[in-house]
Specification:
extended; 5 helices; alpha+beta; Alpha-Beta Plaits; 4-stranded antiparallel β-sheet; single chain; 189 residues
Length: 189
Amino acid sequence: TNVQVQINTEAPGFSPLEAEQRITFPVETAIAGVPGLQYTRSVSRYGLSQVTAVFEDGTDIYFARQLINERLQIARGQLPAAIIPEMGPIATGLGEIFMYTVEAKPGARRPDGQLYTPEDLRTLQDWVIRPQLRNTPGVTEVNTIGGFERQYHVTPLPERLSAYGLTLTEVIGALERNNANVGAGYVER
């Protein structure tokens, strides 16, 4: 297949029109004029923008990805907050050759006695199966479709916040501090 770099951007809650106007168009504009670029094509769907940059035959894929990455860094300033475009794997749509499902036997139970849920199976896929498959020689990427991704929701009750003398801003700040990912120091012994 031709030399191509795919740029995927998740945009939860965006309609196809919003994804096109606020993500796809700025990304296409940012990568326009990259050396060796033949053409671009794009798809904007609910919650997703996908731009494919096709390069001239003979273009080194790593060079093409470097050029696209440089342009994406510039484009990030023009995109909505928390929207981060990512390059797809070094493969084309024709490279996707194996699909599988993760299922539990009917009536199978977790160690706590509850039946397995779609969320349990998705968690198993994301945290156990996928990392092991990605380490397999020849596997470029493992894409997960379906199941229910584990989420944690904090729904404060205004009357209880008021009773404790807290504001919503303080709750948000506490959650951000609690979920921060920072490098740790070390102690020499």
